[in-house]
Amino acid sequence: MICPTYPSWASCSLGVFICVQCSGIHRNIPYIGMKVKSLSLSRWEDQEVKFMAENGNELMKHKYEAVVPVYYYKPTHKDCQVLREQWIREGTRDGMLMKRGRDNGQFLNRRFVLSEREGTLKYFTKYDAKEPKAVIKVDSINAAFQPEKIGNPNGLQITYLKDYSTRNIFLYHDNGKEIVDWFNSIRAIQLHYLKVAFPGANDAELMPKLTRNFLKEGYMEKTGPRHTEGFKKRWFTLDHRRLMYYKDPLDAFAKGEAFLGHQDQGYSASPGLPAGTHCNGAWQHGITIVTPERSFLFTCETEVEQQDWLKHFSDVISIQMSPQEYSSKRLQPLIKGLYSV
Could you tell me which InterPro entries the record lists for this protein (predicted)? Predict the structure, then answer.
């Protein structure tokens, strides 16, 4: 939105000059860290002046309005308060969601704030808390509906990497439309950043990079790296090339992960267990996954489950790796492997 020719205020968070009316709207969005100053009455730091000089209204207009849908009405300083306010707030979502506690398993009301400008999802333990409990980069998020796992028809699972470990957040809202709106808002911001990162790509090429459903989830039994440890029942999640396991489906952190690369690099999946393997578990339908680093041994309850897991493993291993997946593989030594039981 373009303010009058001689604005008297500025947003030193965005690098734009604004009128006094719009400054009040910007100031009242504290949860995204918006900072405004008077051009004549405020004290300006050197770095703030430098930031304003490097940006400005025309440059920021081009940046933030690059992918605004054509049907969006773009208000001016002459428009009514509600139009100007919603335009400035566009790209943020603020509301309460029920979140499962990491340690106690209880669902409690928590405030979540989604910001397109920052590219983050934040949550706060209290509505009026000044500092968020967590700040999650939206481009690292996967979001998938999990009503059966969470035990609520509107259950949503947020997954992201935290300190090189997979972190899960389980949410729901009593209103189905509300939780779907949160889901689609995350996807909208992801698409926005992808269009900036890949300006020549069309929507069809970018859509597969948005949130996705897991390829498969379910229980298997596993043993440790020496293949002499006892087999223990664990919950497994296959998220494309990442195979993660948990003691409980609603664990906040994965206990371990394995990367599944391409078959030409020494990755394979086959039925059965190596000769001489001592299988003390209750399930007898084995799977052996071979990687360049080691082999992983699993057992399934039924042959049907074994074949379904094998199909998914084989499908992943047969797909050529993308440059981004090669980068992900290089990070894999930093991520906990499937070593503990």
Answer: Arf-GAP_dual-PH_domain, ARFGAP/RecO, ArfGAP_dom, ArfGAP_dom_sf, PH-like_dom_sf, PH1_ADAP, PH2_ADAP, PH_domain
